[in-house]
């Protein structure tokens, strides 16, 4: 599963992104303004994103689309002084590359998955054999067949657990004739704080 961290830092909406002033997220080697910039995410005045890193730094880039044509950098860690460590991608050889940046009120904002996911229609971002439904938090597994596709509508969050209305086949974009439905618990967040679920960033 790709790295999604604990959230994302991105450009706060302007008069949608075209028509707003161009802006840049600068990522540095450490959490000081004087540190060397090793990567940047640029949003130009036409609403087009461009991701740049030092030559030879990355083999695989790590930007994340978290809304319709909305791109940001994945949060790995937050520090008390407002700096955040972000995932930049992977170096040649596969090592994870990260750096530091910080939010700017009115320009660059943080979106935490714990706050965003409870308002989204969800699916498991896991291999099929890792999908689990439960009768209660930490309780026994519950059977819910999803062979024809499914969607989960959040109802309540309790720690790492979420109560959902599971529907199969999915009723996210259309009304299936006879969907199976049940109210079940899922572990929506792993012990590492990363989400085990995701959402459709581009809609139907």
Structure characterization notes:
With 204 residues, the protein is mainly beta. It has two domains: 7-112, no CATH class; 120-199, no CATH class. The protein is 2% helix and 44% strand. The strands form four sheets. Strands 1, 5, 6, 7, 8, 9 and 10 form a seven-stranded antiparallel sheet that branches. A three-stranded antiparallel sheet has the order 2-3-4, with no helix packed on it. It has a three-stranded antiparallel sheet with strand order 12-13-14, with no helix packed on it. The longest helix has 4 residues, at 113-116. The relative contact order is 0.17.
Q: Provide the gyration radius in Å.
A: 19 Å
Mean pLDDT: 89
Count of individual domains: 2
The arrangement of helices and strands along the chain is: EEEEEEEEEEHEEEEE
Percent in helix: under 10%
Oligomer: single chain
Count of discrete alpha- or pi-helical segments spanning 4 or more residues: 1
Tell me, briefly, the overall form.
elongated
How far apart are the first and last residues' alpha carbons, in Å?
A: 22 Å
Low-confidence stretches: 15-19
Structural class: mainly beta
Query: Major β-sheet, in short?
Result: 7 strands, antiparallel
Strand content bin? 35-45%
List how many beta strands DSSP finds: 15
What is this structure's SSE topology?
Layout: E1 7-11, E2 23-28, E3 37-43, E4 49-53, E5 60-61, E6 63-67, E7 70-78, E8 83-90, E9 96-102, E10 108-112, H1 113-116, E11 122-124, E12 151-158, E13 161-168, E14 180-187, E15 197-199
Antiparallel strand pairs: 1-7, 1-10, 2-3, 3-4, 5-8, 6-7, 7-8, 8-9, 11-15, 12-13, 13-14
């Amino acid at each position: 599963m790709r790295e999604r961290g604990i959230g994302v830092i991105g450009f706060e909406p302007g008069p949608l992104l075209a028509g707003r002033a161009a802006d840049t997220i600068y990522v540095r080697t450490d959490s000081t303004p004087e540190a060397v910039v090793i990567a940047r995410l640029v949003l130009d005045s036409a609403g087009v994103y461009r991701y740049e890193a030092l030559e030879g730094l990355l083999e695989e880039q790590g930007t994340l689309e978290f809304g319709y044509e909305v791109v940001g950098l994945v949060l790995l860690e937050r520090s008390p002084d407002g700096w955040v460590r972000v995932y930049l991608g992977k170096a040649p050889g596969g090592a994870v590359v990260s750096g530091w940046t910080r939010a700017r009120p009115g320009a660059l904002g943080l979106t935490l998955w714990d706050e965003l996911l409870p308002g989204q229609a969800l699916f498991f971002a896991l291999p099929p054999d890792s999908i689990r439904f439960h009768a209660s938090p930490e309780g026994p597994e519950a059977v819910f067949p999803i062979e024809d596709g499914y969607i989960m509508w959040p109802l309540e969050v309790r720690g790492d657990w979420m109560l959902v209305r599971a529907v199969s086949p999915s009723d996210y974009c259309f009304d299936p004739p006879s969907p199976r439905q049940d109210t079940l618990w899922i572990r929506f967040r792993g012990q590492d704080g990363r989400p085990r679920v995701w959402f459709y960033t581009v809609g139907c």
